[in-house]
Design goal:
Multidrug efflux transporter AcrB transmembrane fold, four-stranded antiparallel beta sheet, alpha+beta
């Protein structure tokens, strides 16, 4: 405490230091901040699943692609449309260095046979006569490797697939392509889809959203603070505290070279909403000291305010930081870094609150508040609340049990979803295009099944190929699966054309020798790069591409269950089943998200219980102090389950945040109640005084936090709006549970266990400093 007072006595030096640090952080943010939307960068590089996926992606050239949709309601098989498809294909290859390969109807290979020989030629020969186009249409409809996959079954739309290089800047590329395709519009309609488009759009929308949210939350908080505190001086102090906390969090992030993830756009709103709590409690204490000692001097006021609040503010900031730091147990990088830098911001706000308020007293003198403490406290309301607690404790307990029962039931309905498309409104053009592609073609998302063996040429074995084909048939029976592609698909198409489309010829031949001949003929006639996407050169590792009509991790579980059911069949051939690609990474991402949520909750509750027990020298108080946040957590998950709100990378943060903030109310209440009881006051007197003093600050605190998070309701991202609404609910739940259930429980302990008479000596001996 002496160190804080010593710094506070030098307000000009403190302000200069604050200004220098703010400029340093602001410059770092403006020069190096970048929004990361690449899903592969969300994952820990050392995770076995991602290492295996990356190896498979390297082997088979698996990567995300931008899908350009060309639609002609009159049908694509006319000279103008086909020539435009060909022109776009060539222009993409020439105009964009980031695009490694372009696949379209005009350059895709068609497997055919002539006089018993296998031939692989493009569907488009360059001839746009009516006869040639009708022939091309017949070839497309006879080839299931492209029909329904790259060309819609109604013949009105086709895909031009632009495969990207590893270092492609999706944000810049999707923006450029959106403008570039405009020159090709009319009469055909063009649009783009695919994960890179989604990632690029998120990277573009994230900063725009933050640019709207940040000033809006500042304005809202200024209005709220002035309305609650009726003090320009304390409102300004609070805003300096929260703005510095935000600069500290983002500045630390950029100085350490950590990218800003989409979820981090909530940090400013969060820190501004949280940080005002420390200022509100400092204001509340200073106000009460002035009311109690009207002639108090500035030196004594500064010392007494810090002496009174250093312990509860330090402990509340520490528990809030613990709620955030617990998120670092997650293996999902955005969640981990969010927790770390939000905790840094919170601790910075705590230090600044303890410094700036006494420094302002030394600089500006004792504050003069417009309203007296009696009017601000609204004792009649608090008296009625105390009467309810004293007279109807059983009612409050029964009501709490009913709420908990409903909450637990709702919690059982919580589901996980890490869909990137969920970040957009349903009527957003990106979502509508994605739905169009999923309806017309195989799908915009992919899952890659990697089959690995130590035996060369194993995937020429008819039984192995037939097992693969059987699994693909089962997968395609799932409505979420659009198409599948593997070496088995190639062999079936080769067999069909070599047998001149005879009945049942689209199948795997029983002879390994015949299969080897087909592959040899294909290698002589076709593009080896095409076959390399499904099999390695030793024929010991195969890739099955599964096209999905949704990027939701929730629907992928059924698909993986089907694949896993073939594990035993493949193991008989010595084949191991693995996964790769963005679809699989999304699923693992969701599993890690759930795992991290469970671990962070356990850590948060465990550490906070330990701190409360240590702080108040009593295990039972530690247990009772966690009850309000336990109720808050159950209500939060219950509402999510009942309203069908998924657990996502954004909503996964809520409970740890709510625990960290919500326990502050319990600490402030228990601290003041304990001190009042130790002064010799009765249980009823201590309760009333605590409700009048700390209860008022808790209500103000909750209103300020809820007001700050309410700004998220105006975010362009639906998950952020869900977070805002849920945290408003959580803050209200925590405050109400603290001022009702916690009071009932502490009364029970106090009355039946002579709580404070037993440990009054221990607490009175501790140094408040």
């Amino acid at each position: 405490m002496k160190f804080i007072i010593a710094l506070a006595k030098r307000p000009y030096a403190l302000l200069l230091l604050l200004l220098v640090l703010s400029i340093l952080f602001a410059v770092s943010i403006s020069q190096t901040a970048s929004l990361e939307t690449d899903l592969s960068e969300y994952m820990p590089k050392t995770h076995p699943a991602f290492i295996a996926s990356d190896d498979a992606e390297q082997l088979f050239g698996i990567g995300d692609a931008i899908l350009i949709v060309l639609e002609d309601p009159q049908g694509i098989y006319n000279s103008e449309t086909i020539e435009k498809i060909d022109a776009i294909t060539k222009a993409l290859e020439e105009d964009f260095e980031a695009i490694e390969r372009v696949i379209s109807l005009t350059n895709a290979d068609n497997i055919q046979s002539t006089d018993g020989f296998l031939e692989v030629e493009p569907f488009f020969s360059g001839n746009t006569s009516e006869k040639a186009l009708l022939s091309m249409k017949a070839d497309v409809e006879a080839n299931p490797m492209i029909y329904g996959r790259n060309v819609s079954r109604d013949g009105t739309a086709t895909l031009i697939i632009a495969e990207l290089g590893e270092d492609a800047d999706t944000k810049a590329l999707q923006k450029t392509l959106q403008q570039w395709i405009g020159q090709w519009e009319g009469p055909q309609k063009l649009r783009i889809a695919g994960r890179p488009v989604i990632e690029g759009s998120l990277a573009e929308l994230g900063p725009k959203d933050m640019a709207i949210m940040f000033p809006l939350v500042i304005l809202t908080m200024i209005i709220l603070l002035y309305f609650l505190l009726r003090s320009v001086r304390d409102t300004v102090l609070n805003m300096v505290i929260v703005l510095f906390g935000t600069l500290l969090a983002f500045g630390s992030m950029t100085l350490l070279g950590i990218p800003i993830y989409a979820v981090d756009t909530m940090i400013p709103v969060m820190l501004i909403a949280i940080g005002v709590a420390y200022g509100i409690h400092m204001h509340n204490t200073i106000h009460h000291l002035i009311a109690e000692f009207p002639t108090i001097g500035k030196d004594e006021l500064a010392r007494k305010s810090v002496q009174t609040m250093i312990r509860p503010i330090f402990m509340t900031a520490l528990t809030t930081a613990i709620g955030f730091v617990a998120l670092m147990s997650s293996k999902v990088l955005p969640v981990r870094y969010f927790g770390l830098f939000a905790a840094i911001g919170v601790l910075g706000e705590m230090v600044l609150a303890l410094l700036l308020f006494p420094a302002s007293i030394y600089l500006l003198g004792v504050p003069k508040y417009k309203q007296n403490i009696q009017n601000l406290s609204k004792p009649s309301a608090m008296t009625r609340l105390n009467a309810l607690i004293m007279n109807r404790p059983k009612f409050l307990v029964i009501l709490s049990m009913i709420i908990l029962a409903v909450g637990i039931w709702g919690t059982s309905k919580v589901w996980i979803d890490t869909s990137f498309l969920a970040n957009f409104e349903k009527n957003n053009s990106i979502v509508e295009t994605d739905q169009y592609v999923n309806a017309k073609f195989g799908g915009t998302s992919t899952l890659n099944v990697i089959l690995t063996s130590e035996n060369e040429d194993l995937f020429k074995d008819p039984q192995v190929l037939q097992t693969m084909d059987s699994m693909q048939t089962d997968l395609e029976s799932n409505a979420i699966v659009g198409n599948t592609l593997s070496l088995a698909t190639f062999i079936k198409q080769m067999n069909q054309v070599m047998e001149e489309h005879a009945d049942a010829s689209f199948s795997i031949p029983d002879s390994q020798e015949l299969i080897s001949q087909y592959l040899l003929l294909y290698e002589f006639s076709g593009d080896p790069q095409t076959l390399e996407q499904v099999i390695d050169y030793t024929y010991s590792t195969a890739n099955i591409t599964v096209q999905l009509k949704s990027d939701s991790s929730a629907v992928l579980k059924d698909v993986l269950t089907t694949i896993d059911s073939y594990q035993e069949a493949f193991s008989k051939f010595g084949i191991e089943v693995g996964y790769a690609g963005s679809g699989y990474k999304t699923f693992v991402f969701s599993e890690l998200l759930l795992e991290g949520q469970i671990i962070s909750l356990i850590i948060s509750f465990g550490i906070i219980f330990g701190l409360l027990a240590l702080l108040f020298h009593n295990v039972r108080i530690g247990i009772v102090g966690t009850v309000p946040i336990a109720i808050t957590a159950i209500v939060n998950f219950g509402v999510m389950g009942l309203l069908n709100i998924p657990l996502s990378s954004a909503t996964a943060l809520i409970t740890s945040i709510a625990i960290g903030i919500g326990v502050d109310y319990a600490i402030h209440f228990l601290e003041h109640y304990t001190n009042t009881r130790l002064e010799g006051k009765t249980l009823e007197e201590a309760t009333v005084e605590t409700l009048l003093h700390t209860g008022r600050a808790i209500v103000f605190n909750a209103i300020a936090v809820m007001g700050g998070f309410a700004i998220l309701l105006f975010s362009v991202f639906p998950p952020n709006r869900q977070v805002g609404a849920l945290i408003i609910l959580n803050m209200a739940t925590s405050a109400i549970a603290t001022l009702t259930v916690l009071v009932v429980l502490i009364h029970h302990l106090d009355r039946n266990n002579h709580l404070f008479s037993k440990h009054i000596t221990t607490i009175s001996q501790r140094s408040i400093t």
